[in-house]
Amino acid sequence: MTDNFTGNARHSRLAQFHIDTPLLLGLLALIGFGLMVLYSASGQSIVMMERQIVRLGIALAVMVAFAQIKPQTLKRWSFPLFVVGVALLVAVMLVGSVGKGAQRWLDLGFMMFQPSEIMKLAVPMAVAWFIASHSLPPRILHLLGGVILCAVPTLLIAQQPDLGTSILIATAGVFVLFLSGMSWRLIALIAGLISAFLPILWLFLMREYQRQRVLTFLNPESDPLGSGYHIIQSKIAIGSGGFDGKGWLHGTQSQLEFLPERHTDFIFAVLSEEFGMLGVLILLAIYLFIIVRCMIISSRAQDNYSKLVAGSFTLTFFVYVFVNIGMVSGLLPVVGVPLPLVSFGGTSMVTLMAAFGVIMSVGTHKRMLAAP
Amino acid sequence: MFKKRVAIQDFAAESRLFNQRAVFAILFVVLMFGIIVFNQYQLQIVSYQDYQTRSEGNRIKVVPLAPNRGLIYDRSGILLAENRPVFSLELIPEQINDMAATLAELATLIEFTTEQQDAFLKQVRAQRRFNSIALKEQLDDQEVAILAANQHRFPGVTVEARLSRHYPFGDLFTHALGYIGKINTRELQQLELDGEAANYAASRDIGKIGLERFYQRELHGTMGYQEVEVNNRGRLIRVLRSVPAVSGQNIQLGLDVGLQLTAQQILKQHRGAIVAIDPRDGAVLAFYSNPSYDPNLFVHGISSANYNELLNSRDRPLINRVTQGVYPPASTIKPHLALLGLESRTITTSTKIWDPGYYTLPNSDHRFRDHIRWGHGWVDVYTAITKSCDTFFYDMGIKLGIDRISEYMQKMGFGEKTGIDILEESSANMPSRGWKRARHNQPWYPGDTVPLSIGQSYWTTTPLQLAVATTPLLNRGKLVTPHMVTAFNNGETTAAHIIPPRQVLEVENEQNYAVVMDTMHQTVSTLGGTAYRAFLGAEYRSAGKTGTAQLAAIAQDAKYDADAIDERLRDNAMYLGYAPYDNPTILVVVALENAGGGGSNAAPLARQLMDYYFAAGVNRDD
Q1: B155–chain A nearest CA distance, Å
Q2: How far is Cα B232 from Cα A255, in angstroms, rounded to an integer?
Q3: Which residues of A touch B129 (CB under 8 A)?
């Protein structure tokens, strides 16, 4: 295991398929644990399990497929992909279909497609492409270019409105800039600017329901049967789990459906209730393992573009985990972010696995290219 | 060369820079995970008890179980008040998305009034969550079938079977049993004051009047409950714990269905009351007030049309004439006064006075008339009672004086509530000097004592009070407390309900009781006695006293002419009788409003009742 962890890929048979064994094991452990929780959270629905497994299969296939693409190829396609993504976002704005009060989907005839998913990959890739085409640390001008690359899709997605995704995409781009070595002074400056931007966000950009979510987050007990219901029930589920949980399939909050969205966004509460603090620690350990492994891969990557893309994907993955757990356990306001690879859900899982595919590609193509 | 070196240096520096940032990022990730772990620790370890409690509170609901109301039986075990399953259409508001549409659709299937709908909607706003609320009660079989067939179309709409009170004899026992109805706000407050409210969490009904009200506590029983696990929609998942309700006690009455039916039948033509008690222990054998009404109308909430009809009826069916009908006792109290006269030695058995057909007070011209205009001639106490001579009692009353009469009669129970086990009772009135001063602010005149001596003027009594106040005459000074309930049964054991008679009179000469009872026997048994004709040919030997209460004042020289005055002002007919004359087991009072003379109208009814009583052997095993 230690050997695997250090990433001696040459010894792995999977390396021939550009698969990073430790990362794959980490992901499989997560998927396994996730399916177990989902079985309970779905009310032991076989149908839902089947659908999730099919999706996971597709996502794994996508991951393997992406792992086969050389980083150089990815780099070449980064900007064109970004342009296509922006074009699709504009198309959504013009002809997209409305679902749950937001215009996010593009009807392709045979399936509904959410272009913002492409941008989750395309934005960090494009920013990394742009930054890596100059020497590091980037100069102010290059940073500005990176910021513009982030800002265009972010604003397009924010007006759908899909604030959560737009912030995540902006974050992914910003991670590239951070990893590229932008100066701490600049980071401090930007942090200051963002704090100054928050009131504008609150007053002009956020919709009423989004503001309500934040208010509810600040004081969930103010409206226990209305908007505070989710978070109160979620905290009850987590708290009543105790140290070792109520046992698999025995969480009363989740099995009796007091917990809303239990198989999607709030699945972490189900896990907390049934497996207790112990289960949470195991989950966090798996996540941490995956993140650390990905960062190791990133730092060993052969060129700056690969490092930046892989590092940004890794940190974005962490943000997903943190935001979801944070909102379910009352640390953050409720935003619709699933728990990666555990929540029941579609497109975002495929995108996520594609990102892991890219990371694997970065990790496994390195040596071959480094060889003379 | 230069370029290349720069590139290599750059690469190393860039790599270092990236690694720096990567390490920093990992540290940041670890820190953030640390925050999550700390927060989990706060929730799952520090506040565990609190959240555990709230989680249990979410899933466990305590559902109260209503006890079955105790049944009521007549003396031979015939059911007088039972619990029958009735079907009601109930809705759970939380499970209905569009109430207006649901109601509109239901209206196409079965009929319900807007009154019912309004009452339902009013309840919806007031009820606790996930309670089902009745829209229409007492569904008939067809409605139940229609609703069952369409059940799938109406989530949240159910047909519930509940036990509901039913009085199979309808109007026969109304004034005795009373009825139950929905608990109202005032009653709920009273239950809370009594600390009983918790026991009524599942109960919808409460005794409103009569025995149902008096024995509410015994009949109600003790609530049970179920601890159930529910889901977020309040649907029951499983029962965790169950404590069954304890049914209310069954009660047995001294009333007899046959006797009661006889009473109803013979009273059919009259407004009035019949009451029969066992003079030995006070058990009530018959208790009927006419007109009566169907108590079942009240159980599910009486319609306002029906209620107004009862309330505004000129015959006032809602009045319980047995205990609330306040009538002048008229001559029926002559035996009671005779006992006082004998005891106080105001008269003896050989005292005779001359009756010219009227009585005048000294220094007065006002003639107090006897009911026989030409008078009875010489009368002693026997004649005075058997022929109901008024003059004899006028004279004796004046000699006794108001104070002695008032005090003695009160001891026998006149002017006092009898304490029967229903609360709808009047104490009627036994006048005294103090009473007249307080009531009319006038002194007592001898002229007030004269009519009082024949049970007229201010003296009033209820039929039940008259019966009860007669028991000291038959029991050598012992007064009974009348009671309809004779036994309680909790399903396993039966406990007799006995109230021992109280000694209220201490007589100097026990023989005086025999004299008084003898005069009453002669009233029935000797030719010329006022009740002789009514009891002619009876197969048992009874005793009694008639009474005719004058309601309209008659001018000094005028003659009472029943046809000439308003029907409502005609005389009340009274009869007080008991049998067997020497060892009475039944004591009957008949009071008929505006029926005429007691001997010819009330006494024959008492005869019919007693005929049935002896023929059917109602009280034989006692």
Answers
A1: 19
A2: 10
A3: none
- Residue A136: which of B558, B15, B268, B65 has the closest Cα? B15
The whole-angstrom distance between residue A300's C-alpha and the CA centroid of its chain comes to 22
In the structure encoding, which two tokens stand for residue B490, read together? 């909790």
The residue with tokens 């309500």 is A212
Domains annotated for chain B, with CATH where assigned, are: 62-253 (3.90.1310.10), 257-616 (3.40.710.10)
Query: Which A positions 305-324 lie with beta carbon below 8 A of chain B?
Result: 307-308, 311, 314-315, 318, 322
CB within 8 Å: B18 and A257: no
Neighbours of B422 (CB within 10 A): 26
- Interface pTM (ipTM) of the complex? 0.91
Cα–Cα distance for residue pair B474/B472, rounded to 1 Å: 5
Q: Which of B21, B25, B39 is facing A331, going by the closest CB pair?
A: B39
3-state secondary structure of B286: strand
* Nearest chain B CA: its distance from A65 CA (Å): 26
- B331 as an active site residue: the answer is yes
**pLDDT for B131 beyond 90:** no
**Subunit contact A136:B10, Cβ cutoff 8 A:** yes
Nearest Cβ partner for A239 among B18, B25, B44? B44
Taken in order B313, B315, B317, B319, the sign of the CA dihedral is positive
Share of chain B above pLDDT 70, in %: 94
Q: Is A186 left (phi over 0), alpha (psi -120 to 50) or beta?
A: alpha
Identified catalytic residue from B331, B388, B432, B542? B331
CA distance B446 to B452: 10
* DSSP label of B204: -
What is each CA distance from B45 to A224, A241, A328, B32, B39, in whole angstroms?
23, 9, 17, 19, 10
Query: Which candidate, B379, B408, B374, places its Cα nearest to that of B394?
Result: B379
pLDDT digits (tens, 9 = 90+) for A192-224: 888 888 888 787 777 777 777 777 777 766 666
Tokens 């215009």 locate to: A103
